[in-house]
Structures
1.
Amino acid sequence: MTTAPSLGPRSTRIDVLRGVAILLVLFHHFNIAYRLDGTVLSQFFGWEAVRAVARNGNYGVTMFFVISGFLITSNARRRWGALQDVKARAFYGLRVARIVPCLLLLLVAVNLLAWAGVAIFQNRAPAGATPLPLWLVNLASLTFWMNVVVDKYGWTNYALGVLWSLSVEEVFYLFFPILCALLRRERRLIAFWLAIAVLAPVYRFHRQDDEGGYLYAYFAAFDGIAIGCCTALLADSLVLSTRLKTLLSWTVAIAMVVLYLRWPIAQSHVLGVTAMALGTAVLLATMSDRSTDGTAPARLRWISTAFGWFGRRSYELYLFHLIVLGLLRTLFPPALASGGDRMWLLGGYMLLSMALCDAIARCYSEPLNRWLRSRLSASRA
């Protein structure tokens, strides 16, 4: 998942929330590949508890959508002063600088692995059907309709299926500067985005027997981004005491945990997705960045640092973690892995994903992002 880099100092609360979201996704995908029943985790916590954490990783994507809408809107407002003054060319240029380098690198890696004969990275299809050609999946990835492919054909390509969420985001942002120019006033934009937020659960209700429809379709997932956009415009008008904000943050966080653990997303997707999005919005508006000012307890600062690291690397982790997991599945087939093996594989999966994505961020995506932004600034000048 993507977010526009902040123009000012990084926000710890946003990085922590992104860190929680990406860890939920990573754990969810690992449990699909290597079920964690029979492991030390399930023996200590109980399989039902472990499964409750692992099964709802898609809610992590919902959190990403809200954070993305919040940052895109608040940064656009800060950059141009008012949303009606957003410059479409510059806006799209900034999106390209952040999105495209990692996307191209992912496609190159998957295509090379597929052409090298690594079966898990080749396209697949339901029994009796012909797999889609790789060029078509590449095209869908680059032109942001991979979610349509997933909806119609299923998880056609193991490592590229995650691009469904990128397709939802970028189609939403394709219309962002256009809407800002047409509607002009912030209250009209809020009304429009709230209408989208109301439409989404209705859409999911009518597609609730179709997993591809209620999880991956554009209008099934737009509400998270729209709620994030509204939060960015309304957060400054929220006048509450620090104590009340803290109480509200903890109350909402506990409610989100209960929702997450109590019902599988297959049962709670109609209103549960919107509820999780609204909860994330409340956390964005009420959580503080106290852990960075030196006054928080050392334990809280350590937790914030740990989750914050994952948040800062969340885009790279989201795109590339299935490369690591796919290679592990090839080298260590899940059917042959014992409970102890799966715990070692979980640790290796996390460490390898962290090392790979940190290297990609430091040596490739961040330098290229800065260079493309500098070129964009130079062309505007």
Note: The first helix runs from residue 12 to 33.
2.
Amino acid sequence: MDKIIALTRQQREAILQHLTANQVQALSEFTRYAMLSRFHTHHYLKQTDWEFQGIVIDPWYQRQHDHPGDNLYCDCGRRLKNQFILRSRTTGRQLFLGISHFQQHASIPHKVAREIQAGINEINLYMDSILLAYQAGRRFPQEIFQFIVDQQGFKNHEGTIFYQRCNLFSRVDLPLHQRDYQDLQTLYHQLKQGVAHRLTKKEIKQLRDDIATDWRQVDQQITMFNYLLRQHGLTVQDLHRIKSNSINYALQRRKTRFMIHDYKQFKDVTLTKARSQLAIKLRQLSFYLQIFQPNELAKVQCEQAQQILIAHKMSSPKSHFFGIKEAQILLKSKYTI
């Protein structure tokens, strides 16, 4: 699979038809996460008035009518596969756009839009290679993966896309990209030979940076949930109450009340604390997932949140925490469930 092959829309759909719903969603989450990482790494919108707040992907885009999800739309009304959410730094206005309308609706330079599209094309090629591997009969290397898990071989990979993709794909038996498979094999052979790698200062910094980026992406998912709450009529007091309860829930059974509120704070914490802060943020995300799950208000966002928790090997709990029940009551007062 060294040769890069781009599938046509028809070829891609023909393979997707053979995937289960969980496999399609896992593949979609990998794509979304890769796009988020590109935005945070390349700072595409740095010289504009807009800041990137998130992305929603319709995993069922090719199936216009016969699918279990909800369609996504650009602010112009056109149906989208990838919906980018932008926020004006000066006015706070939010836009929901497809990449082709970045220049028209947000006055983002054409060069920047081209760079973003080139990144998306590269990610799509990566996804196509996975679909081709699946079509060829390859599946996830479960035995190798399980050995590494048992030997705690992923201890220093928690914040990487590689680790999270392994978690996602192992659950639904999707094959890895060839490069990821080679990395997995390398790690497997090191553990077999009893090689204990000690992290260098440079590696520790990189791992902490990866965790900070990961934290930031989870935080953006929470921001999207809060935006939905505002859009559907909850008061400022209600929103503040829900946010406070989400923090209390995230910090349950912890000895400290310390909680990072800006990803830039990660540069001043140890690797152990960075890992702890990511775990706290993921627990806060699970709070929002639980308050929305009984209804259809945020179906796509809930599916994405579930995939994020799976990628981090976290379950979707069903807690009796009073703050969750209180938030659900507030939602019931605003919506018909």
Note: The chain has a mean pLDDT of 85.
